């Protein structure tokens, strides 16, 4: 049995314990179920962000492949421009030079897209390097005649062309 004079002390201790119960760190943020639900939601959000990033990258790569494939089709239809004889093109009808300029522009655009989309795949850069060599004399003449011509391309493409001109000794 409990002595009567101890009852107020026991009540007061219980009252203190009940008014200030021991709170675990995780109880400040909610129940275990609420915390788990928040973690799952956060993981879902991160998953969606990763998926959007991958889809964007895939779309960029698919677009670059289509553009390069269209350039290959243009190359197949105009073999005289893939390995050009610049003197013969300039001596021919004026339309031939315009077509060749358009061909080179499309080639540079296709390479710009492919190299941008496939930065970690060296074979795309090597393919463009190989195809660019035949067009360097034209690009050198075009740049000398119209210095703003290459400014229509990205700084990366401009640097690429300049370095290939320097390697080939064409300036």
Description of the structure:
By secondary structure, the chain is mainly α. The protein has eight helices and no strands. Helix 5 runs antiparallel to helix 6. The radius of gyration is 35 Å and the shape is rod-shaped. The protein starts with 6 loop residues before the first helix and ends with a helix.
List the helices and strands and how they pair.
Blueprint: H1 7-19, H2 32-77, H3 79-82, H4 86-91, H5 94-117, H6 122-132, H7 136-145, H8 155-168
How many DSSP H or I helices?
8
Rounded to an integer in angstroms, the radius of gyration calculated over CA atoms is 35 Å
Global structural class: mainly alpha
The percentage of residues in β strands lies in under 5%
Count every beta strand, where a strand is a DSSP E run of 2 or more residues: 0
Q: Unreliable stretches, pLDDT < 50, 5 or more residues?
A: none
**Percent of residues in helical segments?**
over 70%
- Major beta sheet, specifics? none
The overall pLDDT, averaged over residues, is: 85
Order of helices and strands: HHHHHHHH
Instruction: Please state the overall shape, judged from the principal axes of the Cα atoms.
Output: rod-shaped
Distance between the termini: 108 Å
